[in-house]
Write a structure and sequence with these properties.
Blueprint: H1 2-14, H2 21-33, H3 37-50, H4 63-87, H5 95-116, H6 122-142, H7 149-166, H8 173-181, H9 191-199, H10 202-207
Helix pairs in contact: 1-3, 1-4, 2-5, 3-4, 3-7, 4-5, 4-6, 4-7, 6-7, 7-8
């Protein structure tokens, strides 16, 4: 899928300046292994508003894919944090790997915030991270694994906010609810399967409920 490749390039490009090399390699490893669904949904949301395919420009971090990368980085960082909360590598004696992993998670979220900071999705990004913190606190207290699903739901909601507003549209409550309902567990299925089975024409229909300006802004995030 071309969009998945574009998201992957943009996400990797967003961390290519980070030192030391060991940390950058760990970031790249995390981004290469993860699901690109959050970033692709961001691009699909742009397409749903403009009714035309997104054609990512070079360099990889053009204004549209910059948003997709921001959503992707936040998801990867929070998903890694969730994993570490379950596995607790510090208790297995591998403290160095645990420290590097939590630093990786922090950097991913921070860089994702940076990419979305000057966009209409900034507040939604903050709320996504806050909701994750609240859910994980309750998860530790109640041992309720059902709370882990909320991350995917919240990130998909963030994706449609980031994408529709990039195209001058607005993520309506119905659209945000639809996006959240696409998550049915902690983690995602293969990207092609996800969009073929769960998204279909619904995204375009719901995104069309909100007014949008013509075209895709090219300088909104510059």
């Amino acid at each position: 899928m071309q969009e998945a490749a574009a998201v992957r390039r943009a996400a990797l490009g967003a961390v290519e300046d980070i030192d030391p090399v060991r940390l950058r390699e760990r970031l790249e490893e995390q981004l290469s292994a993860g699901s690109s669904i959050p970033g692709v949904l961001t691009l699909r949301s742009v397409e749903a508003v403009t009714d035309r395919a997104v054609e990512p420009e070079e360099p990889a971090l053009d204004p549209v894919t910059r948003r997709a990368a921001g959503v992707q980085l936040i998801y990867e960082g929070l998903a890694l944090t969730r994993q570490l909360a379950r596995e607790e590598p510090w208790e297995t004696g591998d403290r160095d790997e645990g420290d590097l992993a939590i630093l990786t998670a922090d950097v991913l979220v921070a860089r994702g915030f940076y990419l979305l900071a000057r966009t209409e999705a900034a507040d939604a990004a903050v709320e996504t991270v806050r909701a994750f913190g609240r859910d994980q606190t309750v998860r530790r207290e109640t041992d309720d694994p059902g709370l882990d699903r909320n991350l995917e739901a919240d990130v998909l909601e963030l994706a449609v906010v980031a994408g529709t507003t990039a195209a001058g549209g607005h993520a309506t409550p119905r659209l945000r609810e639809f996006a959240a309902d696409l998550a049915d567990g902690a983690g995602f299925p293969p990207v092609d399967q996800f969009f073929a089975e769960r998204v279909g024409d619904s995204l375009r229909t719901l995104a069309g409920d909100a007014p949008a300006s013509e075209g895709v802004p090219t300088s909104v995030d510059d």
